[in-house]
């Protein structure tokens, strides 16, 4: 029987147990996925060493421990090292190996909804934000063959730190100049925390005075499902891509790392949407 889990704080309302239990059902694997809330007060080292004794087969890590976990790992995968954050650990014969599934999960979710985008020779993306999620998405877009990946962020230096790591054509721009340039990209990906509940009326950029075009507007926030930015984009006729689908596919990749099995995703999107709408 497999035993998986999640560490973080606060995580009582996490959707990961539902997602992974659904994967276990769909792949006919006997197992459990439990939440292990670790209060940030007190020494993390003592708590994580006690958690190690539980000998889980694999676990996820969320805020505020995605960086803090790194010194306790035996190995860190190349992508997670470049991102500087780990969200998935596999226990391989007692050794903890760290991964980051956000970037690949994002690209899988985008590809599942817009497969034709991935057959274009020249693919251009703009990322809004330069935090941990943006780093993972940038790396995965490069691996997926995007030819241009630009970044707009409040703190310019953080965006420059990302583009220095990679070879793809990139420029950094202020958030204020994004609106005028949206139509130059195949996809604009919102990765900041601006617009998340309870501040759902906020948006990192305003979409006004823009002509409808083929650009996909994507937001990785999933609470609410349709962010203020996506509502604006919808009014102007843009194609939309939703953050809850990234949540599903980053979990799919984590499950694959743990079990070697890729769970089928049919109707997961709609089922998760119903759960989120009921909150
Ligand atoms: P992070 O590392 O803390 O980065 C936050 C980013 O947001 C930074 O670029 C920061 O800009 C920007 N930001 C925050 N407040 C801002 C403000 N008031 N004005 C302008 N920019 C602001 O966070 P993260 O881990 O990347 O996560 C970001 C978001 O993605 C969160 O909402 C998280 O829930 C979501 N997420 C979703 C998934 C999914 O599966 N759908 C996965 C991972 C993350 P500065 O650099 O200037 O500080």
Structural summary, described in words:
- The chain is α/β, with parallel strands linked by helices and 279 residues long.
- Helix content is 35%, strand content 19%.
- The protein has a six-stranded mixed sheet. It has a six-stranded parallel sheet with strand order 9-8-7-10-11-12, sandwiched between helices.
- It is globular and about 55 Å long.
- The two termini are 31 Å apart.
- The site of NADP nicotinamide-adenine-dinucleotide phosphate (NAP) has 24 residues, from α5 and α9.
Topology:
Blueprint: E1 2-8, H1 16-26, E2 31-37, H2 44-52, E3 58-61, E4 75-76, H3 78-83, E5 88-92, E6 95-99, H4 102-113, E7 124-128, H5 132-143, E8 148-152, H6 156-164, E9 172-173, H7 178-181, E10 187-190, E11 216-219, H8 228-235, E12 239-242, H9 243-259, H10 268-277
Parallel strand pairs: 1-2, 1-3, 4-6, 7-8, 7-10, 8-9, 10-11, 11-12
Antiparallel strand pairs: 3-5, 5-6
Helix pairs in contact: 1-9, 4-5, 4-9
Residues 102, 129-134, 153-155, 158, 191-194, 196, 204, 220-222, 243, 246-247, 250 line the site of NADP nicotinamide-adenine-dinucleotide phosphate.
According to DSSP, the number of beta strands is: 12
By helix and strand content, what is the structural category? alpha/beta
Please trace the helix and strand order, writing H or E for each element. Answer: EHEHEEHEEHEHEHEHEEHEHH
Q: What compounds are bound to the protein?
A: NADP nicotinamide-adenine-dinucleotide phosphate
Largest sheet: 6 strands, mixed
Parts with pLDDT < 50 across at least 5 consecutive residues = none
Q: Report the average pLDDT across residues.
A: 96
């Amino acid at each position: 029987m497999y035993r998986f889990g999640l560490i973080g704080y606060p995580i009582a309302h996490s959707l990961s147990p539902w997602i992974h239990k659904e994967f276990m059902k769909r792949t006919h694997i006997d197992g459990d996925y439990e939440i292990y809330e670790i209060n940030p007060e007190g020494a993390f080292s003592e708590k994580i060493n006690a958690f190690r004794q539980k000998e889980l087969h694999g676990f996820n890590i969320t805020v505020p421990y995605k960086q803090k976990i790194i010194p306790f790992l035996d190995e860190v995968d190349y992508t997670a090292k470049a991102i500087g954050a780990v969200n998935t650990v596999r226990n391989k014969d007692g050794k903890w190996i760290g991964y980051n599934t956000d970037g690949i999960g994002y690209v899988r979710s985008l590809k599942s909804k817009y497969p034709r985008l991935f057959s274009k020779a020249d693919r251009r993306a703009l990322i809004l934000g330069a935090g941990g999620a943006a780093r993972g998405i940038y790396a995965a877009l490069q691996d997926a063959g995007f030819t241009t990946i630009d970044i707009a962020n409040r703190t310019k230096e953080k965006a420059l730190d990302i583009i220095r790591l990679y070879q793809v054509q990139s420029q950094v721009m202020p958030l204020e100049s994004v609106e005028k340039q949206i139509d130059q990209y195949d996809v604009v990906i919102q990765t900041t925390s601006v617009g998340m509940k309870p501040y759902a009326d906020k948006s990192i950029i305003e979409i006004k005075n823009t002509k409808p075009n083929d650009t996909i507007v994507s937001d990785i926030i999933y609470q609410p499902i349709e962010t203020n930015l996506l509502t604006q984009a919808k009014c102007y006729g843009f194609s939309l891509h939703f953050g809850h689908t990234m949540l599903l596919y980053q979990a799919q990749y984590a499950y694959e790392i743990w079990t070697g099995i890729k769970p089928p995703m049919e109707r997961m999107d709609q089922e998760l949407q119903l759960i989120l709408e009921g909150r």
